[in-house]
Structure formats: structure tokens, C-alpha cells
Prior knowledge:
- By secondary structure, this protein is an all-beta fold.
- It is built from no helices and 25 strands.
- Strands 18, 19, 20, 21 and 22 form a 5-stranded antiparallel β-sheet that branches. The chain has a 4-stranded antiparallel β-sheet with strand order 1-25-24-23, with no helix packed on it. The chain has a 4-stranded antiparallel β-sheet with strand order 2-3-4-5, with no helix packed on it.
- Strand 2 and strand 3 (63-67) form a beta hairpin.
- The protein is globular and about 50 Å long.
- The termini are far apart.
Amino acid sequence: MAGCSSGGEPGPPAGTPSPTASSPASPTSPAASPAAPAVRVAGTLTEDLKSPWGLAALPGGDLLVSSRDERTITRVDARTGAKTRVGEVPGVVPRGEGGLMGLAWRDGWVYAYLTAESDNRIVRMRYGGGGGDRLGPPEVVLSGIPKGVVHNGGRIAFGPDGMLYAGTGERGETGLAQSVESLGGKILRMTPEGRPAPGNPFPGSVVYSYGHRNVQGLAWDGDGRLWAAEFGQNTWDELNLIRPGANYGWPKVEGRGGVSDFVDPVAQWRTSEASPSGIAYAEGAIWMAGLRGERLWRVPLSGAERSGEPEAFLVEEHGRLRTVLAAGDGRLWLTTSETDTRGTPEAGDDKILRLEVR
Length: 358
């Protein structure tokens, strides 16, 4: 694979044209507003994680973290940082950007988005109860998501409606994003058992929105609106407000295009300053982790609109940032991503950082 995309990730084969937005960018490094909350690193919860990707909170506050390349899930004590390996997930085939990725927890099940031999898929495993700190065998929830060396998506999360959502990529085959028959380049919405969720825009389908390049961030605001972050190619990374059945433009448009058939992003960034993966909602804003950008972005919201310019925090202080998770009471968990083959690992990498918004 040749070319360059957001986050230093391989893009489509050489010679593939790069769409560009027709409108100017939002400022990418604005001055911080005096009234805006800042964020500080209150401490390191744990370290020496290898290729951490997914992060899910358990009842009581402890965390589960996946290792993309080692195929394992580890429990982290939210007070002491002590790590307990709870199992290796069978059937995971790590390669390139694929492997064991997003995690979610619900009603005694751990859900995982993973790359298998033939596809990307979502599985669930019993955890806890009589089994203690051990994972049960995986049960397939949804299969057939296109896989590739790049653009595998991977984020999963349960929404306030109790449905399971997943962000997928188009594996570098751009035409998949515009086909509602494909699961690639989409946001998917399904029941916990993997069936199309009631009220989905395309009857009998788990497809919720389309025209995405590579979605790796999902979060809901205080009013239940869904937000998603996705990688651009060479020009613009995006934060989008997701509407059921809407088309977000890839590959015809990257960033703001002003085309009536496509939904423009609420915020966009040069790929060198973002490369967004996980997002979270806290204290009236979306917080977005940047890989290539090595920073945490804050996007203030007022309802369904942006209420101010994006602000960057922790710029180049902790390396590549992968996943951010709201912990309540003005706190966030943030994982670094220096051991994902794209970073420059140092002693202690990778880490889960404890953040306070103030």
C-alpha cells in the first residue's frame, strides 16, 4: 500500500485521486477561550500496555482494555491500576490496522469488534458471574464487515436506546462507502443479538448512515444525539453529527463540500493535526483523541451545533492518543497508542491516563 492518510496510516493505492473540500477549513489551532474548561493529566492509572485499542467501563468503574495485536483483554482496577488478564479472544487475525479492537459491556456480556480470517465481525463473550475473571467462548453477533490491511473501523458502543452501534471502514475500496448493500464505510445499528434495530432507515438492514471513510469514534451527547469521528485521506478529518439514513459524502467529498446530497461535518481538521480515533462527551463538549496529531481536541457544543472553535490540549505531550472514555464528574480516561507500530515507544508505553476537566 502506498500514499499517506491521516495518522500516518497507509491510504489507497498510489494514483488514487484525493477529493478535496470546496470550503475553507475551520481554524485548527485557535487560541483557548478564557471561559473554556481546561483539562489536566491527574495521573497515570496503568502502563506497559501493548497496542491498546478498545476501552470499556464495568459496573463499579473498573476498565477492560483490548490489545489489538496480542488478541487479549485485560481488566484494570480503576483505583490501583492493577492489571488482570481475563483472556485471549480466539479467531482474531491481527494484520495492519486490524486485530482486536473496540469493546463494549452490557448485561454480563463483553462485546468485541475484531478482524477474523475472512472479515471483520462483532462477537460477544460471557464475563463475570460464576466465571469470575474469565471470558466465555465467543458468540458471533454480526459478521461480513469488509476487512483490509487499512480502514477497518472498529469502534462499538451501546447507545442510550439500548442498541449496539459500530463504526466501520471501507478497507481502502472507496466504492463500498456509497453502497448501502455493503457494511463497509458505515455506522451500523443493531440489537444486542445483531439483528437490524427497530426504526433503522433501510428496512431489514443494520446500516444506519453511510458515505464514511473510516469511523473510529462514537459518542452521544446529553440529549442523546450521536456524534462520530472519522479519518480523512490527505486533506480533512471530520467530526459529524449522525442522522439516520444520511450520506456523509466519501469518496465524493472529503470535509465540507457544500453539496446538498451530503452532510457536512460540524468540525474538520488538517490530517496532520488530528487523525481522530476515540471520542467522548463530557462537560458540554466532545473530546477527541488524535493519533498523528498527538493531541486531545475539545469541541464545545450547544445542542446540535458547535458553540465555539475546537481547542487542542496535551499537544505532543504523551504521543499518539487512541481512546477517550468519559468517567463522570468531569473525569476522562485516555489511552496512548505508541506501541501500535506507528509510534515511538518509550519506557512505560502504552498507558491509561486519568484526566480532569476543570
